[in-house]
Amino acid sequence: MSGRKRRRPPRPRPAPVRDEATEAAEPTAAPEPRRPWGGALFGQSAESAMPPIGRSLGRGLLAVVSSPVLLAIAVLVPLLVWLGLYALGFEGRPALLVDVLALPPIATYFDLGTGESLLGLGPSFLIFIAIAILIRGVLYALLAGMIVESLEDGRVSSWGLLRGVAAIPTVIVVQVLSFTLILASNIILPVLGPGIGLLGAVGALVGGLFFLGFAPTAAVRQRRGVVESIRRSGRAAMLPGSRHLLFCGLYFFIALPVIVGLAPGGGEVTANPSLSGWIFILAASVLHLGFMGGLAYRWIVAEPSVPEQPVPRRRSPQRQPSRRPSGRR
Question: Averaged over 86-102, what is the pLDDT?
Answer without folding.
Answer: 79
